From TrEMBL:
This is enoyl-CoA hydratase. In the N-terminal section; belongs to the enoyl-CoA hydratase/isomerase family. PANTHER family: TRIFUNCTIONAL ENZYME SUBUNIT ALPHA, TRIFUNCTIONAL ENZYME SUBUNIT ALPHA, MITOCHONDRIAL. It is an enzyme of class 4 (lyase). The lineage of its organism: Bacteria, Pseudomonadati, Pseudomonadota, Gammaproteobacteria, Aeromonadales. It comes from Oceanimonas doudoroffii. Pathway: Lipid metabolism; fatty acid beta-oxidation.
Length: 703
C-alpha cells in the first residue's frame, strides 16, 4: 500500500486504484506540490508487476477535482512563475498519458479546469450520471485559459468546434452531454462507477476517438476548414469581449498553434499564454470575485444569530416577480411554495411561468420530465390564507403600494406562525414604513430580487432598525437556498443597487437630450463592459418602474437624483419600454431599432458627437461616486459586498472586480482627479464625494 497525504493506492483484482483526497478540504484542487507525490506513487506502481491497469478517482463524497488551486495562482509573483506551474502540470499529465498501463478516470461531481485536464490525459473516462457531475474548462471565467494541456487535448477529444465552444464560454457539460460529445467513454449510476472503471481498465487502453461525423471532418479535418472555424470564433469573441478580456483571443491563438505546429508547440504556447494571463488585472479581478462569492456562502449566521426554519414558503402575488420567486424556491431550493393572489389569473400566471421555464429545460435535455413534474408539484395556489399557518417565510410581491403591503404584513402575521418571517420584495418603499403597525415588526425584512428572478443572481436583504438578526439570517438562508448571492443593505432610499444605478441612468438620459443617438449611448456602455446599455436596461425594467423610484430617491437623498424633465414626456407618451413595446426602442418584429418617434417627442435631431469613452465615463463616474458615498453611509457593509452587488445586480464589468475594486486598481487619487476633470468639462455633478476626496488626500484605498 503506497500512501501520501493526498494520494492513496489500493489494488482490486490487479487494478491499481489511485484515490485523490486533499486533506481538510471540501474540494480536491491541484497544487504543484502534488506532482512529486504522484510521481512517487507511479514509481511504486511500476515496481509492482502484478498491477495490470489503473483507475484514478476522488475520495471526496461529491467532487472529482475543481481545477488548479486558485490561491496558488494568486501567489504567483511573475508570469514566469505561473508559466512554470503550467509546465509542471503539462509534464505530469504527459507522463500519465505515456503510461504503459491503461489509466481510467472515474468521475463523480465537478471535474473542472485542471481536473478535466488530468482526466483528458487518462486513456479513458467514466462518469456518474449524477446531477452533481459536471465536466468543463471554465478557466476563461477567471480570465485564464486551461494551462495543463486542455487546449490541446480537448479539441482532439471532442472536435475543434465543440472544444472552442466549451473553452470560450467555460460551459460545463452534464453527464449525458459529455457522453454524447465523446468526452467520456461511459456514463453509469454512481453505485457502479468504480467497478465500471475497473472493468474498462481491464480491457486495456480504449481506442482513440473514431472519425468525427462528416461535417466536422469537412470543417476541421483540413486547414481551410479550420480557418473558417477560427475566423468565425474570433469575430464572435471580439463582438462579445469588446477588447475587455484578453483570455479568449489568447486561447484561440494557442489552439491554432497546436493544430498548425503540433502538440509540443501548442503546449509551449499554452504555458506562455497561461503565465501571461495569470498576471493580468482582469484575471486578478475575476479570481477575487470568485473567492468573494465563495466566502459569502459560508456566512450562514448573521450578527451571531442562527437562521430559523425554512421548510415551507408562501408567496404573495403571482405576478412577474412573485412567479419568479416561487419558481426559484420550488426548483432551486426544492421547497413547497404556496402562492396567494387576489384572482386566479395571478396564480395561473405564476404556474405558467414555472411550467415554461421547466419545459425549456426538458426540451434542452437538462431535466427529465418526471423531475419537472416533481418540481411543479411543489407549487400550489390559493385565493385565501389556507396553508399560510405553516409558512416559515412569506415573500410579498404584490403591487408597489404601501397600504397594501402594510395590510399584507398584518394579514400574514395574523394567519402565520409566530416565528414566521415576512419578506417584502418592494423595489423602493422603506421597510420600516412597511413594518409600521405590525404585530411582530422584528420579523419583517426586505428581500429585494432582480428581474428576471430565474436569471439574476443578486438579492438585497434589507433589515429595518427593528428587524431581528435571526430574521436576517433566515432571509439569507432562503436566498442562498434559491441560488442567490445575497448582500445585506441598509433600509435607505433605493437600497444599494437602485441607488447607484439612478445617477448612471440619469446621465444616459442627459446624453440623449444632448442629441446623442440612443444606440450610440448604449453601445458606449456595452463597449465599456456592461451586458446591456442603460437605455436598453430601462426598456427592460420598465420606464414606469424607474419613474416610481426616482422621486423616492430625490426626496430622501437630494436633487442629484432628480430625473431630467424630459423623462415625464416619455410617460405622457405612454412609453413604458418592453412591457408595452414602446420605449427608447421600437420593439417591432424586424428587430429593435431606436424609435424615431422618440426624437420627435423630445424635439431632438440625433447626432453622434461625443467620444464613446467620454459618454461611458460620464455614466460610470457618477455610479462610482454614488457607490463610494453609499459605502461611507453604511448602505453596504463592505467594499466586497458593494462589488458583488454591482457586478451581480447590474452587470458592472466583471473584469474590473466591481466598483470598489476598480477604484482601488485605478487609484483613488487618479479617479478623484478624473472626476474633477469631468467637473470642468460637464458640470458640478461630477464633484468627487467627500469620502473619496479624503481617501485620496490620506493615500487610503478600499483593498
Ligand atoms: C494531480 C497532481 C497535479 C499537479 C499539477 C501541478 C500544478 C498544476 C498547475 C495547473 C495549472 C493550470 C491548470 C488550469 O487549467 C487552471 C485551472 O484549473 S483554474 C481553476 C479552474 N476551476 C474553476 O474555475 C472551478 C472553480 N470552482 C467552482 O466553480 C466551484 O467551487 C465548484 C463548482 C467546483 C463547487 O461549487 P460549490 O459546491 O458551490 O462549492 P464552493 O464554490 O463553495 O467551493 C467549496 C470550497 O472549494 C473551494 N474551491 C473550489 N474551487 C477552487 C479552486 N479552483 N481553487 C481553490 N479553491 C477552490 C472554494 O473556495 C470553497 O472553499 P471553502 O474554504 O470551503 O470556502
Ligand atoms: N418588476 C420588477 O422588475 C421588480 C419589481 N419589484 C417589486 O415587486 C413587487 C411586484 O412587482 P411585479 O411582480 O412586477 O408586479 P405585478 O403587477 O407583475 O404582480 C403583482 C401581483 O400581485 C397581485 N396582488 C395584488 N394585490 C394582492 C394582494 N392583496 N394579495 C395577493 N396578491 C396581490 C396581483 O394580482 C399581481 O398578480 C412590487 O413591489 C415591485 O416594486 C422588485 C424588483 C423588481
Amino acid at each position: 500500500m503506497s500512501e501520501s497525504t493526498t494520494f492513496t493506492l489500493h489494488t482490486d483484482d490487479h487494478i491499481g486504484i489511485i484515490t485523490m483526497d486533499v486533506p481538510g478540504e471540501r474540494m480536491n484542487t491541484l497544487r504543484a506540490s502534488f506532482a512529486d507525490e504522484l510521481r512517487t506513487l507511479l514509481a511504486d506502481i511500476r515496481a509492482q508487476d502484478d498491477i495490470k491497469g489503473l483507475v484514478f478517482c476522488s475520495g471526496k463524497p461529491d467532487a472529482f477535482i475543481a481545477g488548479a488551486d486558485v490561491h496558488m495562482l494568486d501567489d504567483c509573483a511573475s508570469a514566469e512563475a505561473a508559466e512554470a506551474l503550467s509546465r509542471a502540470g503539462q509534464a505530469l499529465f504527459n507522463e500519465l498519458e505515456a503510461l504503459d498501463l491503461p489509466l481510467i478516470a472515474a468521475i463523480h461531481g465537478p471535474c473542472l479546469g485542471g481536473g478535466l485536464e488530468l482526466a483528458l490525459a487518462c486513456h479513458g473516462r467514466v462518469c456518474s450520471d449524477d446531477d452533481l457531475t459536471r465536466l468543463g474548462l471554465p478557466e476563461v471565467q477567471l480570465g485564464l485559459i486551461p494551462g495543463s494541456g486542455g487546449t490541446q487535448r480537448l479539441p482532439r477529444r471532442v472536435g475543434l468546434v465543440k472544444a472552442l465552444d466549451m473553452m470560450l464560454t467555460g460551459k460545463q457539460l452534464r453527464p449525458k452531454q459529455a457522453l454524447k460529445a465523446g468526452l467520456v467513454d461511459d456514463m453509469v449510476p454512481r453505485s457502479i462507477l468504480l467497478e465500471t472503471a475497473i472493468a474498462l481498465a481491464k480491457r486495456g487502453k480504449p481506442a482513440r476517438p473514431g472519425t468525427r461525423d462528416l461535417k466536422s471532418l469537412m470543417l476541421e479535418g483540413n486547414p481551410l476548414g479550420r480557418k473558417v472555424v477560427f475566423d468565425k470564433a474570433l469575430s464572435t469573441l471580439r463582438r462579445k469581449a469588446r477588447g475587455n478580456y484578453p483570455a479568449p483571443e489568447r486561447l484561440l491563438e494557442v489552439v491554432r498553434t497546436g493544430y498548425e505546429r503540433g502538440m509540443a508547440e501548442g503546449l509551449k504556447a499554452e504555458a506562455e499564454a497561461f503565465g501571461f494571463l495569470v498576471m493580468t488585472p482582469e484575471s486578478a479581478s475575476l479570481r477575487r470575485l470568485f473567492f468573494a462569492t465563495t466566502d459569502m456562502k459560508k456566512e450562514t449566521s448573521y450578527q451571531g444569530a442562527e437562521p430559523g426554519p425554512v421548510a415551507r414558503v408562501g408567496v404573495l402575488g403571482g405576478g412577474l416577480m412573485g412567479g419568479g420567486i416561487a419558481y426559484v424556491t420550488a426548483t432551486r431550493a426544492g421547497l413547497p411554495v404556496r402562492i396567494k393572489d387576489i384572482d386566479d389569473r395571478g396564480i395561473n400566471q405564476a404556474m405558467a411561468m414555472a411550467h415554461r421555464l421547466l419545459n425549456d429545460k426538458v426540451k434542452k435535455k437538462h431535466l427529465r420530465r418526471p423531475e419537472m413534474n416533481r418540481q411543479l408539484a411543489r407549487l400550489t395556489g390559493t385565493l385565501d390564507y389556507s396553508g399560510f399557518n405553516r409558512a416559515d417565510v412569506v415573500v410579498e410581491a404584490v403591487f408597489e403600494d404601501l397600504k397594501i403591503k402594510r395590510r399584507m404584513v398584518r394579514e400574514v402575521q395574523k394567519h402565520g406562525p409566530a416565528h414566521g418571517v415576512f419578506a417584502s420584495n418592494t423595489s423602493s418603499l422603506p421597510i420600516h414604513r412597511i413594518a409600521e403597525g405590525a404585530e411582530r415588526p422584528e420579523r419583517v425584512v426586505g428581500l429585494h430580487y432582480f428581474s428576471p428572478v430565474d436569471k439574476m443572481p443578486l438579492a438585497e436583504i434589507i433589515p429595518h432598525a427593528g428587524t431581528s438578526a435571526g430574521t436576517v439570517a433566515t432571509a439569507l438562508k432562503l436566498a442562498r437556498a434559491q441560488g442567490k448571492t445575497p448582500i445585506v443593505v441598509k433600509d435607505s432610499a433605493g437600497f444599494y443597487v437602485n441607488r447607484i444605478l439612478a445617477p448612471y441612468i440619469n446621465e444616459a438620459i442627459r446624453l440623449l437630450l444632448e442629441g446623442e443617438p440612443v444606440e450610440a449611448i448604449d453601445r458606449a456602455l456595452v463597449d465599456y463592459g456592461f451586458p446591456v446599455g442603460p437605455l436598453t436596461l430601462l426598456d427592460e425594467v420598465g420606464i414606469d418602474v424607474a419613474a416610481n423610484i426616482a422621486p423616492v430617491l430625490e426626496e430622501e437623498l437630494g436633487s442629484r437624483f432628480r430625473a431630467p424633465a424630459a423623462f415625464g414626456k416619455l410617460l405622457e407618451d405612454k412609453r413604458l419600454g418592453k412591457k408595452n413595446g414602446r420605449g427608447f426602442y421600437a420593439f417591432d418584429k424586424k428587430g429593435k431599432p431606436a424609435d424615431p418617434g422618440l426624437y420627435h417627442l423630445l424635439e431632438l435631431t440625433p447626432q453622434a458627437r461625443l467620444p464613446a469613452r467620454d459618454m461611458a465615463e460620464r455614466c460610470v463616474l457618477l455610479m462610482l461616486n454614488e457607490a463610494a458615498l453609499a459605502l461611507s453611509e453604511g448602505v453596504v457593509a463592505s467594499p466586497r459586498d458593494g462589488d458583488i452587488g454591482a457586478v451581480f445586480g447590474i452587470g458592472f464589468p466583471p473584469f474590473t472586480g466591481g466598483p470598489f475594486h476598480y477604484l482601488h486598481q485605478q487609484g483613488i487619487d487618479t479617479m478623484v482627479a478624473r472626476m474633477e476633470e469631468y467637473v470642468r468639462k460637464y458640470g458640478e455633478r461630477f464633484t468627487p464625494c467627500a469620502p473619496l476626496r479624503q481617501m485620496a488626500e490620506q493615500g487610503e484605498s478600499y483593498y
